[in-house]
Amino acid sequence: MQFNDRTIVITGGTSGIGQCLARTLRDRRNEVIVLGRAGERLDRMAEEGFATVPCDLGDPSSIENAAHQLAQRWSRVDVLFNNAGVQYNYDLTSEVLPVGRIHREIDIDLSGQILFTQLMLPLLSRSDTAMIVNTTSGLGAYPKADGLVYSAAKAGMRSFTVGLRNVLRSTSIRVLELIPPVTDTGMTAGRDEQKMDPQAFVDITLPQLERERKIATTGQLRFFLLLTRSIPGLARRILEGK
After folding, report:
1. For the chain, which has fewer Cβ within 10 Å, the N-terminal or C-terminal residue?
2. pLDDT 10s digit of each residue in the chain, 242 long?
3. CB 147 within 8 A of CB 87
């Protein structure tokens, strides 16, 4: 699939990788619809000329309202980027657990995206050639100690991606996975580690998605994914910086 003259929906499109995707794809003559929580960031994207729809993936009613607005305003969707995500770091062995954050992390990173995808299938099925791109994480292949809930949610999204691909294999909808490395976004603010520029990541992976590679990522992360399957102990040491 060539990303030109398409109708594209991007969740989490107001910052980071999603924002870079939105701007890059609009420059290629696509109609890009940005979804995000209502607020200044979404307003700024509207000021840039993007179509916007408010959507909080942690709230099922907000998801349903967003899907309804999309169905009312557009006759079809060619590409859906499930890109929204949050990550909270905490110690699960602590006596005091942030229960609300745990639920919200799972809702936004997994269950909300599953619900939104299901609601988008009718619009996607109206496209002759449609695509769903799920942003996951290398932590979905091998978890890190202070991000266990995020890792578990991303592992769930990886499984959902493979399963949905199988379910839709006889349709016109392709299901792909986008796996970024540690990227310089709001989610990673304050981390003292090497980060990739989000625009550079988009530039590297969009051609892979156009070629319909099942997993679009960097060469280094592709090697890490191989290690998680073949030498998991080495993958753990890499995550721990040893």
Report:
1. C
2. 999 999 999 999 999 999 999 999 999 999 999 999 988 999 999 999 999 999 999 999 999 999 999 999 999 999 999 999 999 888 888 777 788 999 999 999 999 999 999 999 999 999 999 999 999 998 998 888 888 999 999 999 999 999 999 999 999 999 999 999 888 666 655 566 677 999 999 999 999 999 999 999 998 888 888 888 888 888 777 776 64
3. yes
Spell out the domain ranges in the chain: 7-239
How much of the chain is helix, strand and coil, in % rounded to 5?
Answer: 50, 15, 35
150 tagged catalytic:
yes
105 residue type, one letter: E
Residue type, 1: M
Cα three-residue angle 62-57-164, rounded to 5 degrees:
115
Question: Side chain identity at 73, as an amino acid letter?
Answer: R
Beta bridge partners of 10: 34, 81
Q: What burial letters (b/e) apply to 93-117, b meaning 16+ CB within 10 Å?
A: eeeeeeeeebebbbbbbbbbbbbbb
**Euclidean distance between CA atoms 107 and 152, whole angstroms:** 12
- Please, what is the angle between helix 198-210 and helix 16-26, to 10°? 60
What's the one-letter identity of residue 2? Q
Topology adopted by domain 7-239: Rossmann fold (3.40.50)
